[in-house]
Design brief:
The chain has about 475 residues and is an alpha+beta fold. The chain contains ten helices and 26 strands. The chain has helices at about 5-15, 75-80, 90-105, 125, 150-155, 155-165, 195, 205-215, 255-270, 320-330, and strands at about 55, 65-70, 85-90, 110-115, 130-135, 140, 170, 180, 185-190, 220, 235-240, 245-250, 280-285, 305, 310-315, 335-340, 355-360, 365-375, 385-395, 410-415, 415-420, 425, 430-435, 440-450, 455-460, 465-470.
Amino acid sequence: MTRACTALAILVFSSLAFATSPFQKNLPRELASFEKQVRISALRPPGAAPVGPVHSLGEWEEADSVMTLWTNASYVRALNQNGNVTLIADDSSAQAEWVNWLQNNQIPQQNISFLIAPTDSIWVRDFGPWWILDGKNQFGIVDTTYNRPRPNDDRLPEYVARKLNVPIFSPELIHTGGNYYSDGYQSAFSSTLVFRENTSLSSQDIFSRLLTFLGIQRYTTSALGENVTIEHIDTFGKLVSPDTWVFSEFPEGSRFKSDSDKMVQALSKMKSAYGTPYKIYRMPMVKRSSWGSEDYRAYINSFVSNGVLYFPIYGNNDANDRRATEIYQKALPGYKIVGVDNGNTEWGDSVHCRSRNILKKNTIFIFPQIENDQATGTGNGKATTTGKASIVAKVVPSPGANLAQAPTINLEINGRMQVLTMSLKSTDTFSTNIEVKSGDMVRFSVSAQDTNGLVKVSPLKAPTQMIEWKVDYH
């Protein structure tokens, strides 16, 4: 870094060090002009990695609270009606401003808490904590380096880790939460921006750190608005559950249509964490105004928390808002779909960008999937090819507990329901073998109870939301 750049960095950092009102967080989602010459580097060296194998937890896991700095009354009110909300404040004065704002907007405070942590901007999705379970089933946080020279923002995960008393791990990797989706198992997705943000690392170095710190074995990247947008995947598509995407569908002539369609094509050839093909729903991209040819409504920029999906809406009984609601409801049966005022946000910046779950560690984690799926016979005439498969689930009881009994599978094959008890396969993994034939429609969920009295089912909204498998043996 040159001497001039060094001086600029000191000026920028010191200017961001003072406490700021939550209503004066005016830094843009992109780099501000005075930030463009500041070199971004990790604030801390890489430390010890978590014990493997690691689960990078999905957004849909149970949450204790939702963190936000967004002064959008429609959104905070909706969050408050459906769960706990954590408002981030620089100091006690900023907290008092939040309290006055809640009172002025007639938002009850019984579900509201505050995290005193200085921040530079409101994009908590990008600089907030990434949640993991390590190889000993211990809850923790991975803290990547924010891709903006905003040191207060970059330290937020430290405050959260301290508040929850959980370990924090630093891979010394520049990456941003809006450009990262985890399926909660071993796969993750982003745009190709991550490679250009880490020019000192080879792609193999990046893959290695993702594996070591986040347990990612399959990392899928695609060019998404390269050098045109902020290139965050959450502006193009939304992974709403381990097996389901809602992905943008741009109109003919859009310069983003090719990128969007290419990634959808790639996803359509992949299997989900459950071992089934991805379900992919397309969200038509609607122009936000008449003056911007590529200025779209931010329907894709949605957020999932505790069985509710929040997304921005733009009108009173607007037909496009209703269509977006219907698409999300098809993608997430059983979930509550809540539209909130868009707050004059732009495409590429809305509900998801401004929200972060504080995931619940005092819960049961269940990771079901289909394994050993193979045909065992050949069709003869009108006979149908048969096969065998294993339904497998890693089940982690809440801290300090054991499972009260073996997990059960609520299994439906062609409409016929049965409940099966799973058998122990390894330390925390259970399995059940089933026989199926080509053409069968299999639906299932996994339930567990632990000695702390907690009960969990996966998927969260079973039996409305189930893992679905259309058997296809050739």
